[in-house]
Amino acid sequence: MFEIFGIPSQALFGQLLLGLINGSFYALLSLGLAVIFGMLNIINFTHGAQYMMGAFAAYMLLQYFGLNYWVALVVVPIVIGFVGILIERLLLKRIQNLDHLYGLILTFGLALILEGLFRNYYGSSGQPYQMPDELRGGRNLGFMFLPNYRAWVIAFSLVVCFGTWFAIERTRLGSYLRAATENPTLVRAFGINVPRMVTLTYGFGVGLAALAGVMAAPIYNVSPQMGSDIIIVVFAVVVIGGMGSIMGAILTGFTLGIVEGLTKVFFPEASNTVIFAIMILVLLVRPAGLFGRGA
Amino acid sequence: MASAAETSSKTSAFPIGRETPRSLAVAAAVLVAFLIAAPYVLYPVFLMKALCFALFACAFNLLLGYVGLLSFGHALYFGWAGYVAAYAAKSWGLSPELAILTGTATAAGLGIIAGVVAIRRQGIYFAMITLALAQMMYLVALRVKFTGGEDGIQAVPRGRLFGLVDLNNEMNMYVFVLIVVLAALFLIYRIIDSPFGEVLRAIRENELRTISLGYNTDRYKLTAFILSATLAGLAGATKALVFQLASLTDVHWTMSGEVVLMTLVGGLGTVFGPIVGAFLIVAMENYLAPFGQWVLVIQGAIFVVCVLVFRRGIVGELAHRLKVRL
Predict the structure, then answer these.
(1) DSSP H or E segment with residue B160
(2) Which CATH class is domain B2-322?
(3) Which of A110, A116, A295 lies closest to B121 in CB terms?
(4) Partner-chain residue, chosen from A94, A115, A232, that has the shortest CB–CB distance to B132
(5) A26 contacts: CB under 8 Å, gap ≥ 6
(6) Residues of chain B neighbouring A102 (CB-CB closer than 8 A)
(7) DSSP class per residue in B12-73
(8) How many CB atoms lie within 10 A of CB A291?
(9) What's the pLDDT score for residue B9?
(10) Partner B, chain A 212-241, Cβ-Cβ below 8 Å
(11) Would you say residue A110 has pLDDT above 50?
């Protein structure tokens, strides 16, 4: 045991770890928002609700079908991603030529519907979700205790984030995607089915949110309002980072998680407002966001 | 907004400024007649609530309908003005008119700060920033002592207006609220019908072009934002005195969503739409209160339907059918 700035190392690293965990979720969610915004020009307000549905889907699989965490980790993003595809085909497609603000309002309405439905059936209190047996316990690193599950969440979300970055920035499919973001008409002229790409992109973004939800289920309680709690913070993260770059979204997400964790140690009263305060600062100094490319 | 612009270009085919179109005068007369007769038929508390929300929605519409700025955080001004007015009336013992003014001034101050930050970005970013700022102040309200946390500020005295009129009498209170709200609505109408309002509409239609014509659009947007926040604050402060309560509900993001809903249902960028929308949504919530969380689902469904097939809203659709300005 030693102390840093008068704070016991256990507490400091413990909060840092929690910050990194929160940061993983911010990164995964803002990544999805950025990918969807790039292709659809819609801010997906339903993102929080889709994250919540991911957590609930994992809970239901375990509760009603006895399927464990590892199955949920694979099945849930696919199923919820498919629900996303339906939403895109049935609803979002109809408003693609309208002002972006209508997309925000429509997805806000969808978020209300989903949250309301889950509240009806599960109430507003949270449901506990058992951690997978393989990841129980933890190890003592000397300066802190590292629970296995938390280490897994951080490692796995890093892999997913960088996998997504690689797929978009370094593969052929990703280059189509980036091209279609810049100029969909031209990309269509090359014989690429852009509308299908838009649909799949939305499904992918929603799948990412659901994946984050599954990972969050054993850490936080599974509750209907878990989505709306986090989505507003993620909006602030997106404003800070700017939605122009995938890497920017990942870095901003993790960094802000850590900053939030540190604030909890040194100035606990401000811990849940610090991200918003940073947003105000960034807007005053660099209105386009840290990684943004103009408004 | 694309289709708001579409409806407005149809309505602005009618002369704005010089004289009030007859349709507006008739609608205003109907509204006033209804509001004078209503307390004899409907509960005054319900009417006062609806009136406060009507003002709230009209203040919001000033921004979305006329400047094209979607603020997703208007609960900030509504709720905080309510807190300050309630605190001023209860703890400082201010008279009701001064308490409401204090609350409204607070909203104006918050509007200046939030406006300076938010107008630095456009469109979707603007919406996200206003939402984030409002959430920040919600979390502050949750923590600081003077708001009373989860309990809110309860048993706020209504007091005597100018030391003369006892506002504990339901009818006196109703007349007071009616006068405040109608005066504020008239002010909003004068704002949108002025040369200043013309510039706001020009910004909505084409901001770059407005800049090229020599207007400092940021200053216009900021002024509109502050006006909208102040009037939303007036609505919130008045509501706090009506219900003798200021609580977290009024600063929560769901309240910001509700005012978007009222405006959308009634008709974006129309004069009377937000009023109709506010009455409808408040009535709906009264009837649906026993059904708990279904209110959320129904509100969400109304959002979806409005965006997909009913973008003009009730009054907007009526105005379009009758080919008049409403």
Answers:
(1) strand B160-161
(2) mainly alpha
(3) A295
(4) A232
(5) A230, A233, A234, A237, A252, A253, A254, A256, A257
(6) 1-3, 307, 311
(7) TTS--SSS--HHHHHHHHHHHHHHHHGGGTS-HHHHHHHHHHHHHHHHHHHHHHHH----S-
(8) 20
(9) 43
(10) 228, 232-233, 235-236, 238-239
(11) yes
Contacts of A94 in chain B (CB under 8 A): 308
A70 and A185 Cβ atoms separated by less than 8 Å = no
Please report whether residue A292 resides in a domain.
no
| Pairwise CA distance, residues B313 & B320, whole Å | 10
- Give a yes or no: residue A142 inside a domain: yes
Q: Within a domain: residue A9? A: no
Give the DSSP per-residue string, B196-243.
HHHHHHHHHH-HHHHHHTT--HHHHHHHHHHHHHHHHHHHHHHHHHHH
CA angle at residue B230 from B302 to A272, to 5 degrees? 70
Q: Write out the two tokens for A126.
A: 């949270």
Residue B20 contacts residue B324 (beta carbons within 8 Å): no
Q: Which tokens hold the place of A69?
A: 């965490």
Nearest residue in chain B measured CA to CA from A277: B136
- How distant is the alpha carbon of residue B164 from its chain centre? 29
User: Per the structure, how many domains does chain A have?
Assistant: 1
What ipTM was estimated for this complex? 0.90
Range of the domain at A142: 26-110+134-285
- Would the pTM count as exceeding 0.95? no
- The DSSP-derived string for chain A is --EETTEEHHHHHHHHHHHHHHHHHHHHHHHHHHHHHHHH----TTHHHHHHHHHHHHHHHHHHH---HHHHHHHHHHHHHHHHHHHHHHTGGGGTTS-HHHHHHHHHHHHHHHHHHHHHHH-SS-B--PPPGGG-SEEE-SSSEEEHHHHHHHHHHHHHHHHHHHHHHHSHHHHHHHHHHH-HHHHHHTT--HHHHHHHHHHHHHHHHHHHHHHHTTTS-B-TTHHHHHHHHHHHHHHHH-SS-HHHHHHHHHHHHHHHHHHHHH-GGGTTTHHHHHHHHHHHH-TT-TT----
CA distance A145 to A9: 10
Q: What is the pLDDT of residues B201-246, one digit of tens each?
A: 999 999 999 999 999 999 999 999 999 999 999 999 999 999 999 9
Read off the amino acid at residue B268.
Answer: L
Q: What is the pLDDT of residues B256-293, one digit of tens each?
A: 999 999 999 999 999 999 999 999 999 998 888 888 77
Domains of chain B, by residue range, sit at: 2-322
- Domain for residue A123, yes or no? no
